[in-house]
Write a structure and sequence with these properties.
single chain; 4 helices
């Protein structure tokens, strides 16, 4: 089962918004939010909450891809999130997430008994490639027990 299939099966909001997992690797995650009239805002584009959910979901997908092998000893949790709206988004949008620290560095910190934090940056783009939003989600790996 792919990360996208796993998240679609276990996270109801992913199914509600019909998020599409286009790419999920430890280096990059790309998700799409189709244009759906029931999730549009007052200017006809995707609602801010839907775009945030898209971006946060992309950040979670890359975290699972990069640190899925650590789940037996730590649980990934978001710590903080910031969103900046840059341009009006209309139609379908996609989110492109990248890790802000090397995964090996984060795991080494976990190995030293620490609770590492690391940023995931996400660009939200329209179909024409224009960046409509930027999101940073700071994640942690909380050791089990």
């Amino acid at each position: 089962m792919s990360i996208g299939e796993l998240l679609a099966a276990t996270v109801p909001m992913v199914r509600t918004l019909k998020l599409e997992y286009l790419e999920t690797t430890p280096e990059r995650a790309v998700l799409a939010l189709p244009d759906q009239s029931e999730y549009r805002n007052h200017v006809g584009g995707p609602h801010a909450g839907a775009m945030f959910t898209l971006a946060e979901s992309a950040s979670g997908a890359i975290v699972l891809a990069a640190f899925g092998d650590q789940l037996a000893r730590a649980v990934p949790l978001p710590v903080t999130a910031q969103i900046a709206f840059k341009k009006i988004a209309l139609g379908p949008v996609k989110a492109i997430a990248t890790l802000g620290r090397p995964a090996a560095e984060v795991v080494a910190e976990l190995d030293r008994g620490r609770r590492p934090e690391f940023p995931v940056t996400v660009e939200i783009q329209r179909e024409d490639g224009a960046v409509t939003g930027e999101v940073t989600v700071v994640w942690t790996l909380r050791p089990n027990g």
